[in-house]
Amino acid sequence: MAASLLASGKSTLEGIPPVSDIDSMGRICQYLGANITYTSDSLRIDTMNLGSLNVPDRLTRSLRAPILTLGPLIARFGFVNFCLPGGCSIGTRPIEEHLRGLEKMGACIKASEGSVEANAPSGLHGATIYMQTPSVTGTMNLMMAACLASGVTYIYNSAREPEVTDLAHCLISMGAILQEGDGPDPITIFGCDKPLLPYRYRVMEDRIEAGTFLILGAMAGNPLAVHGCTSKYQTALIEKLRAIGAQIDIKKGSVIVRKAVCPVAVDIQTGPYPAYPTDLQPQFMALLYMARGTSQITETVFEDRFNQSAGLIAMGAAICVDGRTL
């Protein structure tokens, strides 16, 4: 939805679920001047008449995704005033990577408590950006901004999550020219001096939602088939589910999970993709509650993501938290 702001015209996103986050992001786009039409599993967004470039606190406080409008707006219009986003209470989620990268591309950033103002009256320019941490939203913001920057942008140490690749495919469908590097190679974006083209694109599945159902399948009494699940995106999770004792059958476009009859303890450590995803750590903790033996979870992404352990302790679980290790 944020990428649509790079275009001028009517775009269609397919595979969109009717959830509150989509509604919240839609309200932000409408506030900016976009016209949005929802259908059963898609939405059409018309960005021909964008006007306001100020995103107020009342629209950003409840979720993280609005930060993704920062890059497209500064790239297309040269200005944006943005109230910092909210989201889950799982620790510090700074946006320094976003701001540092935009400054490298020529933006003048004024950050105060609770808001950011970005100016680039002469437009953005290409830059070589080395991200200190592989932030997913930071990578996405810089990719989108670079599409309308003059020259070539190289993003090193970028996030490699499937959602980043999906965004790259979407941007290419809009006329952007970019290359995703392998391993240490950077993401390379060749900028242009005009808005991208309206598009029609089907987004990838929600791999965290799919992973949540896979974990549920390891607890359920009957086999659970998760359709529309791309198994290669779930490699780290599937490895741990098999280690705990669950049976996994991979079919084309679906994954079938059979309950772990006598689940055994395993250790997990979260990290950037392709490591075990932090967003599936709380769900797996509930599964480990059923396992025989002692398990250890090491959380390397967020410093305060064991809040759910209090509920398991209240149910009788023996849990000890020591910093980022549980």
TrEMBL record:
One of its GO terms (cellular component) is cytoplasm. It holds the Pfam family EPSP_synthase. It comes from the Eukaryota. One of its GO terms (molecular function) is UDP-N-acetylglucosamine 1-carboxyvinyltransferase activity. Its EC number is 2.5.1.7. It is found in: Cytoplasm. GO terms for biological process: cell division; cell wall organization; regulation of cell shape; UDP-N-acetylgalactosamine biosynthetic process. Its main location: cytoplasm. It is an enzyme of class 2 (transferase). Pathway: Cell wall biogenesis; peptidoglycan biosynthesis. It catalyses: phosphoenolpyruvate + UDP-N-acetyl-alpha-D-glucosamine = UDP-N-acetyl-3-O-(1-carboxyvinyl)-alpha-D-glucosamine + phosphate. Residues 2-321 form the Enolpyruvate transferase domain. Keywords: Cell cycle, Cell division, Cell shape, Cell wall biogenesis/degradation, Cytoplasm, Peptidoglycan synthesis, Transferase. Belongs to the EPSP synthase family. MurA subfamily. This is UDP-N-acetylglucosamine 1-carboxyvinyltransferase.
